[in-house]
Amino acid sequence: MTGGFSMPNEVCPILRLSLWVAGTAVCVAGVIGVPLGLWLGRSRFRGSRAAWAAVYTGMALPPVVVGLLVYLLLSRSGPFGFLGWLYTPSAMIFAQVLLRGTFLSLREELELVVLSEGDALLRNRYSVITVNTQKHAHVNAAAAKQFADFLTDPGAKKLIAAFGVDKLGEPLFFPEK
């Protein structure tokens, strides 16, 4: 992209949906997780050790395993299949709440120390690749190129990097430099 920061019209709904899903997931995780974490941290009850074990196990699960769990829960034969959320933004929010909610809810009580942060091996990368129009002629190649150009634009990277900082004190996404 030349001539400064601009956003193609086709990109706006996609970006808005992505930011809405991520923001909603963080808010829902906070609303559910913080009170639940405070209650769990301050209460002693039968089964509290099992609850703590579940919390720590949840934080240790790789995102792929949580994704599989969400799929099983939301598939037609799963316990929440009646919601019809599979492959929808609601399912993405549900998955992110499970992943991020555990940590956000107990961040203050956990006495955890970050041992490694920013290591390339720990990054969860998101990428954009334009589709081969020779194999998929029905694809809007111009819009796909505009979207890819937008995501790699320095202005868009600043916008993405700033998302979540005002509410969480730290960014949710770390665009490549």
Whole-number mean pLDDT:
76
The proportion of residues in beta strands is under 5%
- Could you describe the largest sheet, including whether it forms a barrel? none
The low-confidence parts are none
Question: Overview of this structure, please?
Answer:
With 177 residues, this protein is mostly helical. The protein has 2 domains: 9-110, MetI-like fold (Orthogonal Bundle), CATH 1.10.3720; 125-177, no CATH class. It contains 7 helices and no strands. It has helices spanning 11-42, 48-60, 63-74, 89-106, 141-152, 154-162, 165-168. Helix 1 runs parallel beside helix 4 and helix 3 (63-74) packs across helix 4. The protein is globular, with a radius of gyration of 19 Å. 14% of the residues are buried. The model has no long low-confidence stretch (mean pLDDT 76).
Quickly list its features:
MetI-like fold, 0% strand, mainly alpha, globular, 177 residues, 2 domains
Topology:
Blueprint: H1 11-42, H2 48-60, H3 63-74, H4 89-106, H5 141-152, H6 154-162, H7 165-168
Helix pairs in contact: 1-4, 3-4
Question: In short, what is this structure?
Answer:
This protein is mainly α and 177 residues long.
